[in-house]
Specification:
The complex is a heterodimer of chains A (287) and B (291). Chain A is built from twelve helices and no strands. The mean pLDDT of chain A is 87. With 287 residues, chain A is mostly helical. In chain A, helix 3 packs parallel to helix 7. Classes of the chains: A mainly alpha (287), B alpha/beta (291). Chains A and B meet through helix 1 and helix 4 of A and helix 2, strand 6, helix 3 and helix 5 of B.
Chain lengths: 287, 291
């Protein structure tokens, strides 16, 4: 058990080191940082609109960058091990194949967590600077009741604790995308194939709830083919629509932590199933 | 042939075979015909054959990278490819299949941890092996900047980290210059002295002859011959004599032999091997002697 943990951590660390030394992933990350930082200069609206715009842009940048890193990371790093045959040397050591799959996944999740952390700090700094600028402009009205309300409104916008929930949801979404990408990388070696299939699942995932609804409604009347297809989508594809809660949070709607935790649990279960399946497939793969 | 007791067998394959399915239902390709092979503990065993003869397939089957289509293989009595078997094996792949974004030290630390080593013991072992393969000065360079010979040597170091009893080497000197090749050969001979078993594949016959105790010759997935080099290479009707000439000319020696009634005498001045001559021609510092 202890040995297995050591091997998992070693593979995860090595994956993280490789990813951090990869030019492509660093360029994607830097672009994301520029997008988050640049959002500061793109606003010239009322302060309510400004904060909404900043949050929209900032979270979109974090989400897109994270998705690209999750997609490219898994699609590049695992097939590269197989193509370059470094996997032969690795598996000549007393390492279980599932440890390789899990280690790679954990390394990528560590990378995504670090990137998400840095981008969130950057975004927090952008919000703070904007808040200070807006507050400086309100110095004259601070004495009046209306002024105090405006200041409270600014602080509520810039220091909204629900933003942490949105970050947790982005992280969970990226964890699921990475798991899907890792799954496909255990059955294929082409980066383009893995990226494309993961994207297809991602897009279908946005229609999963519709497919599920239609399947449940028409189960007894629909043809076998239609039923099978809808059931397959409903069972195998994750419901990416559920992460749209992020938009609600950014719009300022009140979302319970309970709802966020439900989605996090759903994500963890999906990731678990995807990784177990990937490990089982990889166990029988000839190298 | 005298049967080998099972406790003396490092590797045993019984009817081990591998066929690959061809795409689009075009049938199968037989990469390895049923192979019976025994490698004794403490010997250097060479798998010889041209490309596509089944050497690498055999090694991959022993490592568990491929699953056999039929037959079985054991390593020290353990199922080949199992975690327990791999704990007792070290592997040097044919080409430098290592993470090139790491430097020499990082690569050894990475593979050391995967082999179950850690802490001071691992650090000490890394130092010993860097010295053994003569790469102390290149330890902080990334593997991208290593030559083929250096990569083979760091590969040998990673294979030896956990002090395995059996070393599998896939073409260990392919593409390596004569000096690097001799360094690797010396390390292998040194390991044999320490009681390690070595199984290696090669198509460089002269180098195999220098180190192997026994060989098996494979061709198109079939074992054609197997035996000790002394038995396989002996020419039964001929005797080779090497003598110190001490002033005698070739003609005088030929006359002595023909006068004694020996026919078909072939006499020539012995020549050193080109590899020996090449290494002697290099400056002394480069000749090594690191083992």
């Amino acid at each position: 058990m202890k040995g297995s943990l050591l091997r998992l951590v070693t593979i995860a660390q090595n994956t993280l080191t490789e990813a951090l030394r990869q030019r492509v992933l660093n360029v994607i990350f830097l672009s994301g940082l520029i997008m988050v930082g640049g959002s500061f200069f793109l606003t010239n609206l009322t302060f309510q609109e400004e904060f909404k715009f900043l949050k929209d842009l900032g979270y979109a940048a974090i989400s897109i960058t994270g998705t690209l890193v999750a997609l490219m990371g898994a699609a590049q790093l695992i097939p590269a091990e197989i193509e370059r045959r470094t996997l032969h040397t690795l598996l000549s050591k007393p390492v279980h194949r599932f440890e390789f799959v899990l280690g790679k996944y954990l390394g990528l999740i560590a990378l995504i967590t670090i990137m998400l952390g840095i981008m969130s700090l950057m975004f927090g700094a952008v919000l703070y600077v904007k808040e200070q600028i807006v507050l400086a402009g309100l110095q004259g009205v601070a004495e009046s009741e209306q002024g105090r309300q405006v200041i409270a409104s600014v602080l509520a916008q810039s220091r909204d604790p629900q933003l942490l929930q949105a970050l947790a949801l982005i992280w969970a979404k990226l964890a699921v995308i990475t798991a899907i990408s890792v799954f496909f990388s255990t059955i294929a070696t082409s980066t383009i194939f893995i990226v494309c299939t993961t994207l297809v699942v991602y897009f279908i995932g946005h229609l999963q709830s519709v497919a599920r609804q239609v399947w449940l409604q028409d189960m007894h009347t629909a043809s076998f083919l239609k039923n099978s297809f809808l059931a397959m989508v409903a069972f195998l594809i994750p419901d990416f629509q559920t992460y749209n809660l992020i938009d609600e949070i950014i719009a300022g709607n009140n979302i319970r932590w309970g709802s966020t935790l439900e989605i996090l649990t759903y994500s963890v279960i999906y990731v678990g199933v995807a990784l177990v399946t990937a490990s089982l497939i990889f166990e029988d793969r000839e190298l | 042939m005298v049967p080998i007791p099972s406790e003396h067998k490092a590797v045993e394959t019984i009817g081990l075979s591998k066929k690959f399915k061809l795409q689009w239902r075009r049938g199968y390709f037989m990469a390895l015909e049923p192979l019976d092979l025994v490698v004794k503990q403490g010997e250097i065993f060479g798998l010889l054959g041209p490309n596509g003869s089944g050497k690498s397939t055999t090694i991959k089957l022993l490592l568990g990278l491929l699953k056999p289509s039929a037959g079985s293989a054991t390593v020290f009595g353990l199922k080949a490819g199992s975690i327990e078997a791999r704990k007792r094996m070290g592997f040097l792949p044919e080409n430098p299949y290592f993470p090139t974004f790491l430097n020499g030290l990082e690569v050894l630390r990475y593979y050391g941890k995967l082999s179950g080593l850690s802490g001071k013991f691992l650090e000490q072992r890394m130092e010993e092996l860097l010295e053994l393969v003569d790469l102390q000065e290149s330890r902080h360079r990334t593997l991208k900047t290593y030559s083929k010979g250096m990569l083979q040597r760091i590969g040998l170091a990673q294979a030896l980290l956990h002090d395995p009893d059996l070393l599998l080497l896939d073409e260990p000197t392919a593409g390596v210059d004569p000096l690097g090749s001799r360094q690797i050969r010396d390390i292998l001979l040194n390991l044999k002295k320490r009681g390690k078993t070595l199984l290696f594949s090669s198509h460089l016959l002269e180098q195999v002859q220098e180190v192997a105790d026994r060989v098996a010759i494979l061709h198109q997935g079939q074992k054609l011959r197997e035996g000790s080099l002394a038995d396989l290479l002996e020419v039964p009707e001929q005797i080779q004599i090497k003598l110190q000439s001490e002033g005698h000319t070739v003609e005088e020696i030929r006359k002595i032999l023909t006068d004694a009634g020996i026919s078909q005498v072939e006499i020539s001045k012995p020549q050193m091997k080109l590899e020996d001559y090449f290494i002697r021609s290099l400056p002394e510092r480069k000749q090594g002697g690191h083992v």
